[in-house]
Amino acid sequence: MAVDKVVPSAAAAVADIGAGATVMISGFGPPGQPDLLIEALYESGVTDLTVINNNAGAGGEAISELFAAKRVRKVVCSFPKAIGSTVFDDLYLAGEIELELVPQGTLAERIRAAGAGVAGFYTPTGYGTELAEGKEVRVLDGRPCVFERPLIADFALVRAHRADTHGNLVYRKTGRNFGPLMAAAAEVTIAEVGGIAEVGAIDPETVVTPGIYVDRVVLGADAGAEDER
Amino acid sequence: MAVDKVVPSAAAAVADIGAGATVMISGFGPPGQPDLLIEALYESGVTDLTVINNNAGAGGEAISELFAAKRVRKVVCSFPKAIGSTVFDDLYLAGEIELELVPQGTLAERIRAAGAGVAGFYTPTGYGTELAEGKEVRVLDGRPCVFERPLIADFALVRAHRADTHGNLVYRKTGRNFGPLMAAAAEVTIAEVGGIAEVGAIDPETVVTPGIYVDRVVLGADAGAEDER
Amino acid sequence: MSWSRHEIAARVAWDIPDGAYVNLGIGMPTLVADHVPEGKQFILHTENGMLGMGRAATGDEVDPDLINAGKIHVTETPGAAYFDHAESFGMIRGRHLSYCVIGAYQVSQDGDLANWRTTSPTVIPGVGGAMDLAVGARHVFVAMDLFTRSGECKLVESCSYPLTATRCVERVYTDHGVFEPSADGFRVVELAGGVGIEALRECSGLDLVDAVAA
Amino acid sequence: MSWSRHEIAARVAWDIPDGAYVNLGIGMPTLVADHVPEGKQFILHTENGMLGMGRAATGDEVDPDLINAGKIHVTETPGAAYFDHAESFGMIRGRHLSYCVIGAYQVSQDGDLANWRTTSPTVIPGVGGAMDLAVGARHVFVAMDLFTRSGECKLVESCSYPLTATRCVERVYTDHGVFEPSADGFRVVELAGGVGIEALRECSGLDLVDAVAA
């Protein structure tokens, strides 16, 4: 059978995300954020999620709704503060959400490690700060470094610019951010895209996320007539 | 001043590679091998090199000459055996060259770690084998892993398909291999390319090695009239 | 009658599901690509930085920049992608590759694999990507002849050759049948026509577990 | 007279060499881009995955997919490149970025930096890329006012705010002058017109080392 990872709807794509799941969500600000998938996740009513995202409800209404509805038990992020939203702040100060704060580069590298089968690594980032408290420290080449572990997820929801039916993805400008890392780090990766092309339509030299990392492809709400098939 | 990393000749580009230097050389078979730079390195007469390459003299005459002339003290590679060449074999069996044999993925990851400021990492690859003898082992998530350190070089000689004057690089097909990793892992990176374009001529979305990693750009011998400026 | 190299390859291809991402080693494993059953599509990975590898290139198809891990000129299929070595081996080590099919000198009943070097002091050691594939692929299949040219069984209680990886092999496809390492010794999953399990026990000196489907 | 924010930014830009790869933090550091001396070119990095960032976008230039780390819409310059977050922070941590210019709450005379959170229990902590930039950039420059609004000196013997990184700051550019952490205490490299070193010693309570070029 010809490989075809396109799924008809966002609701179908997220249907098996169950209570207690760990979900990575791509995006840095609005660029690269899979709005339709987040909305479908919200609509599904799923609870008790652990969310891995650079922020915690910033950059989009859909993700804020998920937090506001108390569907998120824990967030792993580098910058939970959102401009123009106090949803996370209120939950956090009320002790209703757990926060694991990670330096942005360490967050990226831990996600990358999960995807690349690296079981742990040492980084100079965070040494001597409260974010490294309790973490193993080792001096390597004269420099104290902190031991960090991979961040694995059950599902990754990523936003890309275009896909082909094999799930090969290309991104657009700063919308790339965490997408390629998260796609490789989750058991199941769902990509929301602005357009879907026939296999062979994306130059193999320019593919950013090879289809091996992608399980399902959904057309974004903004895509409209952009389905090129 | 407008940034311009183009150097007039391969000889000028490698002139400061001195005796005892550690040099990474890209390539897996002929694709991605910087033939002109290797030849210039040979012509420079430099001795006592440590070479980091996937092979040890395979896939090109220039690199075999370097070994045959006993300019290489040590090689770090995954597969020194060359089809149709016994240069390395003879040196090795005569005890005239040091060999550090590294699994190919660990070789790639160690080079990547050097470029990305990762001070060390644990990998399952090699555990329980003679290539991990003497290395620290740690069980992570129930799996025994081997501790590996970054591989840093003084110089990287890489081959790319095209460059712009800022040193942004794109590769071609399986010629990409170690190029992007080595470009980031060396103090000084010299790229040999098939064509040089004005800045702005390469689509920012398709750049594989951003110019920040590249210090010098040289037009390859095969490029001829391909200089697009 | 024992299976031919092509029959072994076809047997392997039969067990790999449609849509799988597969890395094929040099030699007998390469033949698997020629025996993909109708209705199935495998996406081939080559560790020098490509998914969607096609068959060997001939004539005008030869592109100097396009080779596989065995340094043979190959072609590209629709949906292919190129990437660097860190990504390629991250893909392997990160367990994204569904299957790899490789050759072996020896496989132990615990699933240990020896396929990268002999113990000869005059042979230059070279490991390439063997250790990465053995620890990384979700399913490690070995395709090999059951006996060496000098008649020694390559399924062993424990490997005498240097190891590539421990406890990694899931199935071994040979000219005499299909075997699975297990805690109770090798399970015999299938036998080539005319091959008797008792005779194999005798040649190999192994406690073979009869698991041939009735 | 003390320097304005723009004068501080210009002073920083003066010290960064032509062709440098530079990351500029939010606030006063951002102004550095407006004061690049004639004949120099800086290549700007934004940690959300871009080199060759241009100025803020206006009108039709606004592209929804193109923002900087401060989530402001920006433009692209010729020679730009996009990449993912692992590459972007590998670039930072791997010491490829020549300069970063950031703000601070406090800098200690050992070069420790505190710029990511205050100790207020009602403020949500958020670190972003601050710790990565502080340990990674080859030269870490701080641009800030020397005193807080309530008059406390932000150069300190040791930081009372939570640290971002230890021993990382190379130079501090302030409205009153330029300072360098050193083993002997802060070295005063330059003073704004009319600012006296004795007066600064008094306000700050620090042993300032006079290193102003004659």
Automatic annotation (TrEMBL), chains A, B:
Source taxon at top rank: Bacteria
SUPFAM superfamilies per the UniProt record, alphabetical: NagB/RpiA/CoA transferase-like (SSF100950)
A GO MF label: CoA-transferase activity
Keywords, sorted A to Z: Transferase
A Pfam family: CoA_trans
Listed InterPro entries: 3-oxoacid_CoA-transf_A (IPR012792), CoA_trans_fam_I (IPR004165), NagB/RpiA_transferase-like (IPR037171)
Protein name, UniProt field: 3-oxoadipate CoA-transferase alpha subunit
Organism expressing this protein natively: Saccharopolyspora spinosa
TrEMBL record, chains C, D:
InterPro entries: 3-oxoacid_CoA-transf_B, CoA_trans_fam_I, NagB/RpiA_transferase-like
Keyword field: Transferase
GO molecular-function term, one example from the UniProt record: CoA-transferase activity
A Pfam family of this chain: CoA_trans
Family under the similarity heading: Belongs to the 3-oxoacid CoA-transferase subunit B family.
Name the record gives this protein: 3-oxoadipate CoA-transferase beta subunit
Origin species: Saccharopolyspora spinosa
